[in-house]
Amino acid sequence: MNKIRVGILFGGKSAEHEISLLSAKNIIDTLDRNNYEPVLIGIDKSGRWLMGEPSRFLLNTSDPKLIAINKADSKFVALVPQSKGRLTCLGSGPLDKAVDVVFPVLHGPLGEDGTIQGLLKLANVPFVGAGVLGSAVGMDKDVMKRLLRDAGIPVPKFMVFSHGEKPDFTSMVQTLGLPVFVKPANLGSSVGITKTKDETSFRKAVQVAYRYDTKILIEEAILGREIECAVLGNDQPNASVPGEIIPSHEFYDYEAKYVDENGARLEAPAKLSPEMVKRVQDLAIHTFKTLNCEGMGRVDMFLKADGTLLVNELNTIPGFTKISMYPRLWALSGVSYTQLIDKLIELAMQRFQREQDLKTSYEL
Predict the structure, then answer these.
(1) One domain for residues 174 and 99
(2) Is residue 180 within a helix (H) or strand (E), and if so which, with residue range?
(3) Which site from 60, 139, 143, 364 is most exposed, i.e. has the minimal number of CB atoms within 10 Å?
(4) What is the pLDDT of residue 53?
């Protein structure tokens, strides 16, 4: 049996570069070598694509702060339109390598926002996860929340400002109260996010958020439990058992997520009544469909004391690190890590074939 060549695409020109590398390492280590041949494609912080030998392509893999792509023994490569997954070498020497499917393990802009997904569609190769529209919508917290709100899905109150605009503190407090979260609109992993309780820290938080994006979000702080639910599927997605994040930090920030092993307690399954579990799962699937997602997604919610559920966001490429909630929730739902990767690749192939069957010329 010919093995399926899986191009694992990771890294990226993003503040979430290292997290992507950690997620990719877990997928590489878990990939069933009886069925798949991994082809490692790393994108460095300048945006260059490199391909290297799997056994030595990642350096310092045990340290989330120092993990890096090994550039010393790599080829510069590219995917071009209609290449059908064949990689082109940009340097010296021939390259005869093609992939059957791409597994993007990219977090943040230029990887999770529809840009890579558009390139992969032009290259005419199947890929795991949401398409161009679902990825773009899922990345932009402003557009995401407006679409959810218009679909009748409850979200926290928020305000949006673009580069050059300075939020008025008094007006903001009148609308949202205190404390608030200040966030870059297009980023994940809690990068650039600050919880602020007064005007001085608010001004500083706005400056920090603008370092990472030209559009920022100011959002009311919700007092409630942080519930997460994993979704898997294309047209008829399924939801996992819910989990709960119980942070020991001020909030579930970057350090708590990826660096400090004691930064948060992940309670999975979450201690919820059967009725609430069903509500969480239904809301997760409704959110997934509303935002035009496919393949995979993790829906993050707040559960208030009065039983109200609010959707915080949907992550179209959730983390796959050792402590990430997405694979953990599916494991608790009866889908092992290896089975999860199998299913995601299968879903990518199914969608690709469905799109290939569409007509591209008009017939009278």
Answers:
(1) no
(2) strand 180-184
(3) 364
(4) 86
Fill in the amino acid letter for 43: I
Query: Where in the sequence is the domain holding 161, given as residue range(s)?
Result: 157-220
Q: Helix 17-30 to helix 337-356 angle, to the nearest 10 degrees?
A: 100
Task: Give the pLDDT of residue 94.
Answer: 61
User: Alpha carbon 124 to chain centroid distance?
Assistant: 22
Tokens representing 154 are: 């409850």
Same domain, 192 and 250: no
pTM over 0.90: yes
Contact 3, 36 (CB under 8 A): yes
In a domain, 118, yes or no: yes
CB 68 within 8 Å of CB 58: yes
Which residues are CB-neighbours of 310 under 8 A, at least 6 positions away?
A: 154, 155, 156, 222, 224, 301, 302, 304
In a domain? residue 79: yes
Q: How far apart are CA 77 and CA 60, in angstroms?
A: 23
> Are the beta carbons of 119 and 111 closer than 8 angstroms?
no
Which residues are CB-contacts of 195 (< 8 A; sequence separation ≥ 6)? 179, 180, 181, 221, 250, 251
**Tokens 């069933």, residue located:** 32
C-alpha 125/C-alpha 118 separation (Å) is 11
Q: Return the DSSP state at 147.
A: H
Q: Which CATH number is 177's domain given?
A: 3.30.1490.20
Specify the 3-state DSSP secondary structure of 141: helix
Round to whole Å and give the CA distance between 244 and 225: 7
Token digits of residue 6: 């899986």
